[in-house]
Amino acid sequence: MKVGDRHYRTIWMEGTVVYMIDQNLLPFEFKVQAFKQREATCEAIRKMTVRGAGAIGAAAGFAMAQGFISNEDPDIARERIRATRPTARDLFYAVDRVYEAGKISVQAAIEEAQNLANANVEAAKKIGFFGDALIKDGARILTHCNAGWLGFVDYGSALSPVYTAHRNGKQIHVYADETRPRSQGARLTAWELANEGVDHTIVPDNAGAFLMSEGMIDLVITGADRIAANGDVANKIGTYEKAILAEYFGIPFFVAAPLSTFDHNTPDGSAIEIEHRSQDEVHYQTGPDGDGKMHTIRVTNPGSEAFNPAFDITPAALITGFITEKGVTN
Ligand code: MRU
């Protein structure tokens, strides 16, 4: 994606250093951070400097390559990377691929990590091409979380068809779910859409039924963190609710994801590990004051407990179809 007059990927590796757009600072500050060692790249995944299934897959591959470069014990390095976040299948897929390549040579590990990142871009581009066919001129699309350029190495999954449709001249409007508690929709998806010049509106997470009942949504497209063998989908908490609503109102609900997100070894959604994150993400919000200085404030009742599962499982029966780099399947 272009920012200013430069094309950026979300994450890339030059020499031994991994570079990432800091997603914790967006949309208020655009900054690229450098990570020189495997452990620093792991910390960036944990703290969500980089997030989104495709992007953390690339990060995990690069981290494994850094482990080989630093001559770390490959088994220990692999386990540390696997322990950063549990749900996205791409992370495990990438780390295992680079681990295997590293048995040949350090150079082979680096090349495999770079190849995986490039494959991620190519898959996302094709998802855009195939998904565009589902988007009619004038369509109003609901999306959840951020499955765009920032969630991948480039282009995105759910938003890639949106960008292709927009570039093909279709008049479209995207409703971006806010996606509490980390607000990836309100912060990242909205920033991307604005940057691409796509008409959009941020909506509260609980507005879905109202929007659909008023006939304001034609299509729902989300991404996925892991897709089980039976087609159940793990994605950002709140995706399941949107799928139930789409079924109730007879609105198509598509999931866009590359084949690397499909996990044929996991029979169904009940076997997918759901990440639980700190309750502080629910209690506190961070943003700039009038002078642009960042502040973190409590937004919940002091002393109350919060519960913060990061993903939920949408049963296959609620999904109209999948958009992958091979086409649209129903
Ligand atoms: O916790 P996050 O921000 O990593 O969660 C991201 C999502 O749930 C995305 O929708 C998903 O990874 C699919 S596509 C990037």
From TrEMBL:
Superkingdom as given in the UniProt entry: Bacteria
Annotated GO MF terms: S-methyl-5-thioribose-1-phosphate isomerase activity; translation initiation factor activity
EC code(s) of this entry: 5.3.1.23
Residue positions of the active site: 225
Reactions mediated catalytically: 5-(methylsulfanyl)-alpha-D-ribose 1-phosphate = 5-(methylsulfanyl)-D-ribulose 1-phosphate
Xref: InterPro entries: IF-2B-related (IPR000649), IF-M1Pi (IPR005251), IF_2B-like_C (IPR042529), Initiation_fac_2B_a/b/d (IPR011559), M1Pi_N (IPR027363), NagB/RpiA_transferase-like (IPR037171)
Annotated metabolic or biological route of this protein: Amino-acid biosynthesis; L-methionine biosynthesis via salvage pathway; L-methionine from S-methyl-5-thio-alpha-D-ribose 1-phosphate: step 1/6
Record carries keyword Protein biosynthesis: yes
Keywords: Amino-acid biosynthesis, Initiation factor, Isomerase, Methionine biosynthesis, Protein biosynthesis
Pfam families assigned: IF-2B
Site location (Transition state stabilizer): 145
Family recorded in the similarity comment: Belongs to the EIF-2B alpha/beta/delta subunits family. MtnA subfamily.
Entry function: Catalyzes the interconversion of methylthioribose-1-phosphate (MTR-1-P) into methylthioribulose-1-phosphate (MTRu-1-P).
Protein name: Methylthioribose-1-phosphate isomerase
UniProt source species: Lentimicrobium saccharophilum
Gene it is expressed from: mtnA
